[in-house]
Design brief:
Helices cover 33% and strands 20% of the residues. It is of the alpha/beta class and 475 residues long. A 6-stranded mixed β-sheet has the order 1-2-4-3-5-6.
């Protein structure tokens, strides 16, 4: 049993930048484990492969939360694997299903967007053609949400885009027809794309013009979410990881009248807001499992309160007026035009992370911008578990350099603190050295930190003069 356990560990797939590494000895284990997978074939000497791989890695990261594994195979070294899957040129990308028994080859442009669309085309059925008017009316009647496209012919560019993007949304119903049924449905002659909903306004008609990709995505996604939906894990992901802008009404739960008046003020603004702007309108109620967590993002404020979020929720804006319809309209307009006032939230004072690393809060932040000593700050996202390993490595550097220098080391949770000069995405931790009114950025491509490399960076960029023997000490 011990030997079989060791053998299993040896055959487990290693991973680089969200791509599992598959070779001759672990191929069968990989195929047995995953019913569907996406496999990228490359050769180390191939320039096109090197250029395409970052886009494959982006697609792999995108699908990681959906449990669709991506892998890579060195097709030159493992020619038998290439031969098995009939790969004759590089780079090649295959969608495998039935545990590798069947496959579809990617033939699109070498971009992450094209790869993502390709995978969705395999797993989601997309739009269904329906010719009968009665059947279309029945679809409208029975579906809570339905997207209908009325096309003149299959060469219509808008129709082709609609078909492509219908694959992206597995839980939604899409249908299309080539019959001129606009009058029968009470539509205008040139209406083509319509959303039928059993909530909010319905139908919503895409204006008769050339269908643009970004507007099509916005039309689908905004209309698929009821206005003032309850904040949940999915919307949290959209706001904090997918950079969707959101207007969020946080309710009190103690005063039904105040909460109702706030909803009555925000809802009509949400319903009439143009989908092209692609802003989510949500509410956070005390009944939500994530209520207390959301309160942690905004701190001690009087409720109900209205917030706007953007930049993966790194930027927060708070409406500082009474929640009335006219004030809400002005607040949303100011937010859209970048005129809304930033809300700088700060945690309360936090205990030091370790002997050599302090935990920095938003309130403390202004005082270290012109410090007597150099500061090295690690910005992390408290929602990302893999950031904790980076902090552990950061602490090792602080333990090595802190006691022999005047350099200060600190970490700060950028999901719970806002800073006037820091608006960067923190899917990957950020490390900055502040020295002599200059900012030196330490480059990280993934959430992995080599302590020796950071140590060398700090010693080179800091204004503190290290003695020569310390420059070569290993951590």
């Amino acid at each position: 049993m011990f030997l079989s356990l060791l053998f299993g560990i040896a055959l487990a797939s290693k991973e680089e930048n969200d791509l599992q590494i598959v070779f001759d000895k672990n191929l069968q284990n990989f195929l047995k484990k995953y019913e569907i997978s996406v496999v990228y074939f490359y050769t180390p000497q191939c320039g096109h492969c090197e250029k395409f791989q970052p886009d494959v890695e982006k697609a792999a990261k995108y699908f990681k939360d959906e449990d669709i594994p991506f892998a890579k195979v060195d097709g030159h070294t493992y020619k038998d694997i290439s031969k098995r899957f009939e790969v004759n040129g590089f780079p090649s990308l295959l969608y495998l299903y039935d545990h590798g028994q069947k496959q579809v080859k990617f033939e699109g442009s070498r971009t992450s967007e094209a790869v993502i669309l390709f995978v969705y085309e395999q797993i989601n059925p997309g739009s269904q053609e329906i010719s009968s008017l009665d059947d279309i009316k029945k679809e409208i009647e029975v579906n809570d949400l339905l997207f209908l496209y009325i096309s003149n012919d299959k060469e219509d560019r808008g129709y082709r885009r609609f078909i492509d993007y219908s694959h992206l949304y597995g839980g939604l119903r899409f249908i299309h027809t080539f019959e001129p049924i606009q009058k029968d449905l009470g539509l205008q002659e040139f209406d083509q794309l319509i959303a039928y909903k059993k909530y909010d306004k319905s139908p919503i008609i895409y204006p008769p013009k050339q269908l643009k990709v970004n507007e099509l995505k916005a039309f689908i996604e905004v209309n698929s979410i009821p206005k003032l939906s309850n904040w949940n894990a999915d919307y949290k992901k959209k706001a904090f990881k997918q950079d969707k802008q959101a207007i969020v009404l946080v309710l009190d739960g103690k005063s039904e009248i105040k909460d109702k008046n706030a909803i009555d003020a925000v809802y009509p603004v949400a319903v009439d807001y143009p989908y092209e702007e692609f802003i989510l309108f949500l509410k956070v109620t005390p009944e939500s499992e994530l209520y207390e967590e959301f309160l942690g993002y905004i701190g001690d404020v009087e409720l109900p309160a209205l917030f706007a979020l953007k930049q993966n929720a790194l930027q927060k804006f708070k409406m500082n007026r009474a929640i009335t319809k006219s004030n809400v309209e002005q607040f949303v307009l100011d937010f859209k035009n970048s005129k809304a006032t930033r809300f700088y939230k700060s945690q309360n004072s936090q205990p030091d992370y370790s002997k050599n690393v302090q935990q920095l809060t938003g309130l403390q932040y202004p005082y270290i911008k012109t410090p007597k000593n150099d500061y090295v700050i690690l910005y992390y996202n408290g929602l990302e578990s893999e950031h904790k390993d980076v902090i552990t490595s950061f602490d090792k550097v602080a333990s090595a350099l802190g006691p022999i220098s005047t350099i200060k080391f600190a970490i700060t949770d950028a999901s719970k603190n806002e800073f006037p000069d820091f608006d960067e995405s923190i899917d990957i931790v950020k490390i900055r050295l502040y020295s002599n009114n200059q900012v030196h950025k330490f480059a990280l491509k993934a959430n992995k930190l080599q302590p020796d490399r950071l140590k060398q960076f700090v010693m080179e960029k800091s204004s503190f003069e290290f003695v020569e023997q310390n420059k070569h000490d290993d951590l």
